[in-house]
Amino acid sequence: MLSCQILLLLLGVGVSAVEVQRPRGVPLSKRQFYEEGSPFTCLDGSRTIPFDRVNDDYCDCQDGSDEPDCCDTTDEYNSGAACQNTCREMGRKERESMQKMAEIAKEGFMLKLTLIQESKRGLEDKKAKHADIEVNKNELEKTVEALRTVKETAEQPEKEAKERHLKAWEDQKAIIQIAKDKVKMAEVFVELDDDANGFVSVAELLSHSELDSDSEDSFTEAEAQGLLGGVDQVDSAAFESVWNVIKDKYISEAIPDPPAPVETPPEEVREPESDNDSELYPEEDIPEEEEDDEEEDEEDDSDDRDFKSPPPTQTQEKKDDDDEGTMPSYDEETQSLIDAAQKARDAFDEAEKALREVDDQIKNLEKEISFDFGPTAEFAYLYSQCYELTTSEYIKVTCGKETVLVSTSEPSRCEYLMEFISPAVCQEPSSLDSAFHDHTEL
C-alpha cells in the first residue's frame, strides 16, 4: 500500500465536471456492463449480442436490458420479449438520488459561504498583522543599529586592554628567556673549560665536532678559532658573542636528568597454555586458519605495545614553554572591559536574532497573502493542511459536506486524477423541480 501525503499550498485550483460516456438510459451503477465495441451480455445472462443491437428498438434480451433507452416497452416492435415496464421504479430511484445530491450540494454551498467569510476575515487579520510587524521591524532595526554602536564602542577599549596584557606577557617571557639563556651559557662555559682556568680555548672547542660549519671535513683549529672570534681563547664575558653563534648546534656532554617514570598498568598474568594442542595437531598439521589467527594476535600485541609506549622526551622548545607557564589572568580593569564588551555583544546578538525572526514572519505572511485561493478565497482554509490517503493507486476530487481525500486514479501515463471532496467547490444549487423540468419521461 502506498501512503500518499499531500501538503496543499494552493496557488490556484480549477474544477471541471467529467461526463461519463454511456448508452442512453444506462444508469451509472450499470455502466460497466455496457462497453461500446464489446459484445453485450444480457443482464439475466440469457444471451450475448453485438453491441450495435443495444438501443435498436428491438428487445433481444428476455429482461429487456439491451433496450435501456425505453423503460415502458411501448416502442419495441414484434420481438417476442416480455419487456418489463420499469419507468416508475427508475424514476423513483433517480429522484431519490438527485434529492440526496441536491441536499449535499446545498449543505456544501452553505459551508462554502462560511469558508469564504472566514477567509475574508483571515485575510484582513493577516494584513493587519503584517502592518503591525512592519512597524515592529522598523523599531527593531533602530535598536539593532544602536546596539551595534554600543558594541563597537565597548570592543575598542577591550581590544586595546587585551593587546597591552599580551604585550606585557610577551615582554615578561622574553626577560625569562634571556635569563634562562644566560644561565645555560654559563653552564656551557664551565662545561667547555676543561682545565677550569676561566677561559675556553681552541683546543677545548675542538672536542665538539657538531660545531663544524661545513659538516663535511674534520673540525679544524682554524674553524674553531673562527668561532672564538679569531683568538685562541675567550673569557666568560667574551664568550657571550661565541654563545650566540654556537648555541643552536651545541650538544651538551652532561647526562640529562632521566624522565619521570610512566606508570603502566600491570600486565595480565597469562596461564600457561596447555600442551594438548600440540598433541592434537602436530606442527605441520596445524590448521592454516589458526596460524593466521596467531599471526594477527602477534600483530595486535605489537600494536598494543606501540600504543602503550611512553611518549618521547619533550623537545627543548616545548619544555621552555612549560617552564614559562601560561599567560596570567587578566587584571581587574581589563576583565571589567571584557565583561562590558561581552554584555554589549550579547545584547546585539539577541536584537539581531529578533530582527531575523520578524523578517521570517513578514515573508511567510506575504507569501500566504499573495496566494491565489480561488475567486472568493474559498480554498484558503486548506493552507498548510495535510490530508492523507492510504491506497494502492494514486488520488480523486468533488462537492461534499466534508473535506476528505477519497480515491486516486491514473487515466493515462504520467497523468494523475485526484478525487478530493470539499465544500469549497460546491455551487449554489437550483431547485429540484427545475432539475426535472426538461426530463418529463421519468
TrEMBL record:
Pfam families for this protein: PRKCSH-like, PRKCSH_1
SUPFAM superfamilies given in the database record: Mannose 6-phosphate receptor domain
UniProt KW Phosphoprotein keyword: no
CC annotations in GO: glucosidase II complex
Compositionally biased spans, kind Acidic residues: 274-304, 320-331
Protein's name according to its UniProt entry: Glucosidase 2 subunit beta
Domain of life: Eukaryota
InterPro entries: EF_Hand_1_Ca_BS, Gtb1-like, LDL_receptor-like_sf, LDrepeatLR_classA_rpt, Man6P_isomerase_rcpt-bd_dom_sf, PRKCSH, PRKCSH_N
The encoding gene: PRKCSH
Signal peptide interval: 1-17
GO BP: liver development; N-glycan processing
Glucosidase 2 subunit beta-like domain location: 392-430
Entry keyword set: Coiled coil, Disulfide bond, Endoplasmic reticulum, Signal
Coiled coil: 123-150, 341-368
Region described as Disordered: spans on this chain: 254-331
